[in-house]
């Protein structure tokens, strides 16, 4: 295996890491996490007064 010639070969990472596969699931997971954090913050009384 030849050593990558960066940055000329940087585009090749998208052949392995396809945003169409992982981008939306990560966004949905972040949305669920943000809602959970807000729910906890408001439950302990640190929300808006």
TrEMBL record:
Question: Cellular component per GO?
Answer: plasma membrane; plasma membrane light-harvesting complex
Q: Could you provide one GO biological process annotation from this protein's UniProt record?
A: photosynthesis, light reaction
Q: Does the keyword Acetylation apply?
A: no
Q: What is its main location?
A: membrane
Question: Gene3D superfamilies from the xrefs?
Answer: Light-harvesting complex (4.10.220.20)
Checking InterPro entries in the record gives: Antenna_a/b, Antenna_alpha, Light-harvesting_complex
Protein name from the UniProt record: Light-harvesting protein
